[in-house]
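Re: [ENG-882] Designed sequences occasionally contain unexpected residues at chain ends

Forwarding the minimal case from QA. Structure tokens:
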């Protein structure tokens, strides 16, 4: 076992901290971001990692330089949110759990970018922390397929579990027990943080791309001038080419907008016309300022007219 410092901030980094403690490592210090205002009440709250560290009885700081004063042999970084300066790395080697198959998707949002780009697979790397952005050598990795309907939270949870297994297996011998790191092979791509406008659904895009945005968990559109979050949906193959009139195939169901046409954003029951032949079938939505609803309950309440559509 090893004497460690642990650097992490969001909920994603809580399970790896528990894994290290449960494995018997001496976690001498936890470093996280400073408390900040969070949630609807705008209260000043600790990061999820700080809260977990307090529950585990571990010392916590938001000052990175404090890692140099605790006699640790290794730092473990999971979603810390800051670049570690070379001056710190010169005194304390560190390893990082990164949630992609490097060098693809270096940076802040590798799981989100993998979904948005339609990657068939992703994985987790246990890597050496270097001065550059996710440029260090790779000690170990594990890959997995991405399901076409998997949300970012579901995928991230699986990756975190895989990462915990990597930590448990490869850190049991401390620094001396780490395997030889290999260089990253391939052309790097960069996972920039998802910007707010990227969560807005553009209904004239292909259904497959819209579905990827929805899988990120914060997708939104508008209806009657107010924001409508789309929490869960699926792609519905076999839609109509743009320009043909919509039909419900018989008696209209709740909220069916018969005659809305195939203009992108047009509602036909729970399905929405897109810029491709496939459509999006809504499952769960959340109107602005209200609770989440199954789409049929929402449709019964709003009763869309024949020419109403989403995104306007």
């Amino acid at each position: 076992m090893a004497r460690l410092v642990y650097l992490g901030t969001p909920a994603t980094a809580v399970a790896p901290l528990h894994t290290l403690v449960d494995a018997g490592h001496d976690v001498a210090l936890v470093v996280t971001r400073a408390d900040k205002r969070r949630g609807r009440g705008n209260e000043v709250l600790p990061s999820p990692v700080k809260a977990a560290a307090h529950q585990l009885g571990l010392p916590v700081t938001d000052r990175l330089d404090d890692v140099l004063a605790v006699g640790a042999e290794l730092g473990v970084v999971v979603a810390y949110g800051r670049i570690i300066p070379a001056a710190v790395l010169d005194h304390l080697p560190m390893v990082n759990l990164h949630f992609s198959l490097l060098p693809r998707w270096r940076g802040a949002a590798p799981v989100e970018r993998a979904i948005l780009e339609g990657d068939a697979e992703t994985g987790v790397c246990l890597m050496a922390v270097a001065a550059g952005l996710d440029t260090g050598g790779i000690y170990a990795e594990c890959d997995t397929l991405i399901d076409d309907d998997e949300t970012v939270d579901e995928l991230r949870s699986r990756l975190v579990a895989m990462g915990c297994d990597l930590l448990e297996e490869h850190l049991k011998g401390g620094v001396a027990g780490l395997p030889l790191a290999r260089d990253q092979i391939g052309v790097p791509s960069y996972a920039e943080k998802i910007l707010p406008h990227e969560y807005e659904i553009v209904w004239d895009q292909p259904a497959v791309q819209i579905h990827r945005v929805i899988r990120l968990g914060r997708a939104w559109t508008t209806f009657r001038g107010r924001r409508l979050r789309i929490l869960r949906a699926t792609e519905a193959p076999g839609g109509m080419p743009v320009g043909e009139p919509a039909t419900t195939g018989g008696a209209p169901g709740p909220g069916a907008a018969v005659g809305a046409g195939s203009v992108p954003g047009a509602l036909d029951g729970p399905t929405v016309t897109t810029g491709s032949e496939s459509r999006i079938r809504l499952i769960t939505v959340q109107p602005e300022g209200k609770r989440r609803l199954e789409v049929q309950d929402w449709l019964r309440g709003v009763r869309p007219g024949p020419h109403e559509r989403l995104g306007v």
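QA comment: On inspection the terminal residues look reasonable. Residues 122 and 149 are 15 Å apart (CA to CA). Proposing we downgrade this to a documentation issue.
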